[in-house]
Amino acid sequence: MNVDKAKKRIAKQVKKGFKGYPQLSLAYFGKTADVATEVVVTFTLAEGAEPQQQKFASDNDVREDETIQSVLVKIIDRAGANSVLETEGVTVL
């Protein structure tokens, strides 16, 4: 899947806001605020349930990595997430 198409699909899900559980959260991390080298996906099945996390890392910006963005779209689809939340910007490690 094209990286721009994947980013648009993710943004469309994020724009819907909180619609209940299951919920999927995306948070980007990097050494600087300009380049995200890691994305953490947190899946929560129900309110109060133990969240599950998965990390994806790259030497380049994960927001521009076609493979990682395509995987994020597949995770959202397969998880059946009602809500997709995204932390704004890049958290500096």
TrEMBL record:
Query: Taxonomically, which superkingdom?
Result: Bacteria
Protein name stated in the entry = Uncharacterized protein
Tell me which species this is from.
Photobacterium aquimaris
